[in-house]
Write a structure and sequence with these properties.
The protein has helices at 2-7, 11-27, 29-37, 40-49, 54-60, 65-80, 84-92, 96-103, 109-124, 132-139, 142-152, 156-169. By secondary structure, the protein is mostly helical. It has 2 domains: 2-60, no CATH class; 66-172, Leucine-rich Repeat Variant, CATH 1.25.10. It is elongated. The termini are far apart. The relative contact order is 0.08.
């Protein structure tokens, strides 16, 4: 694999070699040690430091790179929302709440913790907008995700913030459906 990555000039061949390494890495710890000894790390680092294509660079990051990057970014956002300036910037961006809600339960447990914390911070300090964040979150489906999160289980801190968010949302739920009505459109009632 290292020979293919180092010496072959064709990008698809290099990309396939990296994909094979990913598969091997997910199965066998002993193979990982052999790969490290054979120079795989140096070759992958070279692809990252001196990119020859975006797909090769992305593939060279190997294990859960997208998940890791997403978790780090969400952790930074969560911390930014601790400051008034960070929250003000978030309030100004129309995509803040929809993107945060969309990622809940999709990336990882850690990412979900950061997301719930971020939405909680935005909602808790949303005095000027009078519940705009909560209403917007409800419109994009946060209620179902938070209830599911409580049912699936999470750490105590996230459970507390989730419960508080659900309580804060209660006054804004009037007029909004908590479930997709289209899901039950053809359901016949037996009465």
């Amino acid at each position: 694999m290292v020979c293919f990555m180092k010496h072959n000039q064709e990008i698809p061949v290099k990309q396939n070699a990296i994909s094979v390494l990913k598969e091997i890495k997910s199965f066998d710890q002993q193979e990982i040690e052999v790969m490290i000894d054979s120079g795989v790390d140096e070759t992958l680092m070279k692809f990252i430091e001196e990119p020859i294509s975006r797909t090769i660079t992305k593939a060279s990051l190997i294990v859960d790179s997208e998940k890791s990057i997403c978790e780090k970014g969400l952790g930074v956002l969560d911390r930014l929302f601790e400051s008034k300036e960070g929250r003000e910037e978030a309030y100004q961006n129309a995509l803040t709440v929809p993107v945060l809600v969309k990622k809940i339960l999709r990336v990882s447990e850690l990412a979900t913790e950061f997301l719930v914390s971020a939405i909680w911070k935005l909602s808790k300090f949303d005095k000027k907008n009078e519940g705009k964040i909560l209403f917007e979150a409800l419109q994009v489906g946060v209620f179902q995700k938070l209830v599911l999160l409580l049912q699936c289980g999470c750490d105590d801190s996230t459970k507390e913030k989730t419960s508080q968010l659900l309580k804060l949302m209660n006054p804004y739920r009037a007029g909004l459906e908590c479930t997709e009505s289209s899901d039950f459109k053809n359901l016949k009632r037996s009465f």
